[in-house]
Amino acid sequence: xxxxxxxxxxxxxGVMTFGKLLATAVCDNTDYNVTFFPSYGAEQRxxxxxxxxxxxxxxxxxxxxxxxxDLVVLNQPSYDKFVSKLKMGGRLFVNSSIVKPTSDRSDIxxxxxxxxxxxxxxxxxxxxxxxxxxxxxxxxxxxxxxxIWKSIMEKMAGKPSLVExxxxxxxxxxxxxRSQK
Length: 181
What we know:
Elements lengths: L1 E9 L4 H15 L3 E8 L7 E9 L11 E6 L2 H7 L3 E10 L13 E5 L1 H8 L5 H13 L4 H11 L7 H17 L2
Parallel strand pairs: 1-4, 4-5, 5-6
Antiparallel strand pairs: 1-3, 2-3
Helix pairs in contact: 1-4, 1-5, 4-6, 5-6
């Protein structure tokens, strides 16, 4: 098993945190190998940000691939830039609140989630990444959700006031991801 994933959006949307949490959970709680390869635009907040992960049950020869199994896009420029790298049969996770797929690709699975609208309804846009991580884990089950939550709790050790909000976002994302299967 080898899964090539790209997570892409604007700086400030939590793209790197999404990737780091997933990579940490894989590394700490499974027998899989994982690589995490971040890429930032010229600016951090508001500029482009993306990261690549490879999760594999064997040695990984390169930190990133030009052919993606999964793509999570949080904004339109990221969709426009990366959708062509998604392999036939690949899975596209789209924040449909602000991303409008323009490709006529019928050879991919599209998991369309109005993520921005949902997290604004929760009261905090800053949990967009945790919500989408939940959607991704709920749909793919690539690692147990408990492993991801453990990584989230470790990251939030110094911010106990944010735990409940993030837990709610993560759990709602998981449920929505599972319902999209």
